[in-house]
Amino acid sequence: MASADSTFSNLSAVEDPTKGRREAKDLPEEERPVAPDQFDPAYETTQWEIYAYYSYYIGNNGLTLFNFAPTAFQNLLSQAAGDSEVLHFAGRPRTINSIVLLANDFGSLRPYILIVLSIVAYAIGFGWLGVHTANKWEIATGMYIVGLIAYQTTLTFWTAAFPGLARNTVQLRAKAEEYNDGVISRDEYDFCDMLARSRLANMAFYIQSCGEIVILAIIVGILHGVNVEASEANNNWGLSVLIAFATGVWLLLSIPWFVLEKRRPGQPIPPNMNM
Asked: Residue 134 has what DSSP assignment?
């Protein structure tokens, strides 16, 4: 066991985080960690805006285009192929596994496709109501590909909003003022920023998980109502209904975020760099 003297000796050796620091106003502009929007009252994050941010995540839970749509897609492929397990796709006969693998290979154009297709997620989700028979497997293939792109895109752009949301909370805006006035160091400000982001991200995940449990409970009731075990056709229709239902929930829960999100400016590009 270490002695008390050595323990206090180690503690005394810890560097004072305030020693030798420079005030923010003395730093070059590019070294300041705070964004311009932190000093504009119009961009202050409200509690309702945070709730709306959580609400969108409950809706965008992946049950639509990320969970049920792949199952519906592969069901239709298997039924259309029959015992041969082969379908004509992309110029030649291919196995079901080959078609699924090709459908997941988006290539180098993926970033541009994601941006363009971000607006079609709801349409794809509701579109599954018209695609639930084996003879529409080709349409299902296209919807599966576009649906995955749409889901990942919306989730990506939703996630990208949280740094600005966190740094404009009342607490972190106060820390930005303290940093700008030289009251706290950059390391202290960065630590507070990290805590604000972590708190927001963790709460979003927790609330989304709780919301998804409620949605799944309703889905169980829908499965019984559609009687998916009665026949193959009922099972196909049930999956399409589930996708459409979860899409409807997603749409409704997205509206508050679309309305309440403040259009904050992005942080400036650092000197000597470009997009």
From this structure: G
Q: Which two tokens stand for residue 34?
A: 């705070």
Output the pTM of the full model: 0.61
Average pLDDT for 33-54: 78
Euclidean distance between CA atoms 209 and 66, whole angstroms: 16
Biggest CA pair distance of the chain: 81
C-alpha 128/C-alpha 236 separation (Å) is 10
Q: Which residue has the tokens 């009251």?
A: 183
Say if CB 50 and CB 162 are below 8 A apart.
no
Residue 172 CA to residue 267 CA, distance in Å, equals: 16
pLDDT digits (tens, 9 = 90+) for 67-76: 677 778 878 8
- What is the dihedral sign for C-alpha 162, 164, 167, 168? negative
Distances in Å between the alpha carbon of 183 and those of 22, 41, 145, 178, 196? 10, 21, 52, 5, 19
Residue 94 parent element (H or E): strand 92-95
Write down the H helix ranges in the chain: 4-13, 47-59, 69-81, 96-103, 110-117, 121-127, 137-159, 162-167, 170-180, 186-226, 232-260
Alpha-carbon distance of 157 to 165, in angstroms, equals: 13
What single-letter amino acid sits at 232? E
The neighbouring-strand residues paired with 89 are 92
Alpha-carbon 168 to chain mean position: 20
Q: Tell how far CA 187 is from the center of its chain.
A: 28
